[in-house]
Amino acid sequence: MSGPLRVALAGLGTVGAGVVKLIEVNRTLVERRAARPIQVVAVSARDRNRDRGIDMSAFEWVDDPVTLAARDDIDVVVELIGGSDGPALALARATLESGKALVTANKAMLAHHGIELARMAEAQGAALKYEAAVAGGIPVIKGLREGAAANEIGVVYGILNGTCNYILTTMEKEGRAFNEVLEEAQRLGFAEADPSFDIDGVDAAHKLSILASLAFGTRLDFEGVAIDGIREVEAADIAYAETLGFKVRLVGIAQADANGLFQRVHACLAPVAHPLAHVDGSLNAVVAEGNFVGRLFFQGSGAGEGPTASAVVADLIDIGRGEFGPAFAMPVDSLTALPPAAAGDRVGRVYLRFTVADRPGVLAELTAAMRDAGVSIESLIQRGNTENGGVYLVMVTHEVPERAVTDALARLHGSENILGRPMLMHILDF
Ligand SMILES: NC(=O)C1=CN([C@@H]2O[C@H](COP(=O)(O)OP(=O)(O)OC[C@H]3O[C@@H](n4cnc5c(N)ncnc54)[C@H](O)[C@@H]3O)[C@@H](O)[C@H]2O)C=CC1
Ligand SMILES: N[C@@H](CC=O)C(=O)O
Ligand code: NA
């Protein structure tokens, strides 16, 4: 074995504490695989005295994590603080500038500053590793960056947020209320420090932009992701979806073709026969279609202490072995920049839920708007009283271009018969 890999840990929350535990429990095999001892030299977090359920006495405590970057007795800084900017970014920059390896689980930082950080890493010949940042414990960064590297990939999509999947599937199976299940996901350590990043789809979009870059060899384009979360999904949608043969899932989709780079995160209806319909709880799944390998399906735990720590320590093992290359699919200057592709031309089926007044003529008005916009209806359900005195009218369209649905909704805008905002979800058709 060569000399120890000297590690500093910045951030000792869910993931940081998990990393300390994993190294302790699996030390022998981790060190055999890294071909050298792993030595945690120093740690930093906001609160020194917090009980983390682990013995930290062997590690030097540092108040300012950025000072870790300048130290000669540290080889790798592990950034587990979180946040796209602030202390996490200051630490990442200082670490790479000093030529040290950086391991991070911070998808928000990578989505916003990944190219800059990758360039710094390349300039210094330093490692920038981030397996934990996308789909937690699933080795999907390794899978796309290395395993599928010989393929042209046309589409990559999946369930990228454990908190949302936990909420949707718990609502589906146990009929519990959204807020109650969100609080449970927070207690279990799945949610971001600000959980609106989870439920508004932003966290999934951060991850999708990273996956798209790896899959297509394009520059990260977080700004180009169209984002919708799950706030407006009601228990009724989950129940209607079930009746119609679907499950509701928050899905991120990225596709590269002659139209450009299409990236979208949104609640979708997955047909019950689709593998994503069977991804439950905090599990994540990623599907990628390669031109030689065919369909790859990665599934596993996308959030939580153990799975995320597993990914962080795998990166440390790679660094211990000296195995790393460009942070993304290829050196930064080789990544292409594709223009964002518009959604309007995309063709697919759509689920629409309207809350309508319970009076004659409503159905006729709705179906006329659909007809005039060229949207044909595959199935229609009208049932039940809602809290605001209306009834739900749910339809699934045949395949239509998205702009036709937008046109139909515009025709109905302002109608006295429609109470509240219609709910729209796309049907997953990959
Ligand atoms: N919790 C999860 O399941 C997963 C989290 N991640 C990512 O891992 C990172 C950490 O997440 P968690 O452990 O869940 O967060 P957390 O909120 O549990 O822990 C954050 C840690 O950073 C420390 N910290 C905050 N500001 C600091 C500062 N200025 N200086 C030093 N330490 C500071 C806090 O004291 C705390 O120990 C985030 O980037 C998150 O997005 C990635 C995958 C899964
Ligand atoms: N908040 C995230 C944690 C992992 O990235 C999630 O819920 O998936
Ligand atoms: Na991962």
Write the layout of secondary structure elements.
Blueprint: E1 5-10, H1 14-25, H2 27-34, E2 38-44, E3 60-61, E4 76-79, H3 86-97, E5 101-104, H4 107-124, E6 128-129, H5 140-147, E7 153-159, H6 162-174, H7 178-187, H8 196-199, H9 202-216, E8 226-227, H10 235-244, E9 246-257, E10 260-271, E11 283-290, E12 294-301, H11 305-321, E13 347-348, E14 350-356, H12 362-373, E15 377-385, E16 391-397, E17 400-401, H13 402-412, E18 423-427
Parallel strand pairs: 1-2, 1-4, 2-3, 4-5, 5-6, 8-10, 10-18
Antiparallel strand pairs: 7-9, 7-11, 9-10, 11-12, 13-17, 14-16, 14-18, 15-16
Helix pairs in contact: 1-11, 2-11, 3-4, 4-9, 6-7, 12-13
The chain binds 1,4-dihydronicotinamide adenine dinucleotide, the ligand N[C@@H](CC=O)C(=O)O and sodium ion (NA).
Binding site for NADPH: 107
Pfam families: ACT, Homoserine_dh, NAD_binding_3
Keywords: Amino-acid biosynthesis, Methionine biosynthesis, NADP, Oxidoreductase, Threonine biosynthesis
